[in-house]
C-alpha cells in the first residue's frame, strides 16, 4: 500500500518569527507558503536552464534592478528621506574639499608687473598671456591645486598687493 504524504516545504523558523508567526502555521498560511515556494522553485529551475551568457546578462540586469553596481550599493530613497533607523541617527558626513582653484580677485595697480611675474612663475603662461589674465581680474588663475600649494601662492600674491582666494 502506497501511503500518500503531503509534501510541505520547511519554513525557516527565523522567517516565521520575524513576521510574528508561530512555528505551527495555519492551513491558509501553508497554502500561501506552498505557492510561494513553488514559484521560487520554478524561478530557480528556469535560472539553472540558462546558458552561461544568459546567466551573466541576468546577473547584470538583477544588480541594476536592485540598485547595485560593481562599486557597491546605490543610496536608496529611504536612507536619504530620513527614515528611522541607524542610518538616520548618524549625521551626514560632508566630504572635505581637496582640490581648489586659485582666483585673483583684484590687485594694486602699482604692483601689476610683480603680480604678472609671480603668475608666470606658477603657471606655464607666456608674458602676454599672463598680462591678459591679470588684467581680466577677477579671474581663476590656476585649477586643481592642493590646499597647501594654494595657500602658499595666495600668501605670495597678498605680499605683492593682490587679493586672491581659494575656491
UniProtKB/TrEMBL annotation:
The record, for SUPFAM superfamilies, names: ClpS-like
Among InterPro entries, the record links this protein to: Ribosomal_bL12, Ribosomal_bL12_C, Ribosomal_bL12_C/ClpS-like
Sorted keywords for this record are: Ribonucleoprotein, Ribosomal protein
Gene Ontology cellular-component terms listed = ribonucleoprotein complex; ribosome
Biological process (GO), any one? translation
GO terms of molecular function? mRNA binding; structural constituent of ribosome
Q: Which Pfam families match?
A: Ribosomal_L12
Boundaries of each Large ribosomal subunit protein bL12 C-terminal domain copy?
100-166
Domain of life, per lineage: Eukaryota
Its family? Belongs to the bacterial ribosomal protein bL12 family.
Its protein name is Large ribosomal subunit protein bL12c
Amino acid at each position: 500500500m502506497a501511503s500518500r504524504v503531503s509534501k510541505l516545504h520547511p519554513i525557516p523558523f527565523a522567517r516565521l518569527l520575524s513576521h510574528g508567526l508561530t512555528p505551527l502555521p495555519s492551513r491558509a498560511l501553508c497554502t500561501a507558503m506552498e505557492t510561494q515556494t513553488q514559484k521560487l522553485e520554478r524561478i530557480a529551475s528556469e535560472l539553472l536552464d540558462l546558458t552561461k551568457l544568459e546567466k551573466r546578462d541576468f546577473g547584470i540586469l538583477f544588480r541594476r534592478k536592485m540598485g547595485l553596481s560593481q562599486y557597491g550599493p546605490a543610496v536608496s530613497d529611504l536612507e536619504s528621506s530620513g527614515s528611522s533607523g541607524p542610518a538616520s541617527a548618524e549625521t551626514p558626513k560632508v566630504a572635505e574639499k581637496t582640490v581648489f582653484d586659485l582666483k585673483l580677485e583684484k590687485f594694486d595697480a602699482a604692483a601689476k608687473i610683480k603680480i604678472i611675474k609671480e603668475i608666470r612663475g606658477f603657471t606655464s603662461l607666456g608674458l602676454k598671456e599672463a598680462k591678459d589674465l591679470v588684467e581680466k581680474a577677477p579671474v581663476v588663475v590656476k585649477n586643481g591645486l592642493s590646499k597647501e600649494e594654494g595657500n602658499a601662492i595666495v600668501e605670495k600674491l597678498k605680499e605683492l598687493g593682490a587679493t586672491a582666494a581659494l575656491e
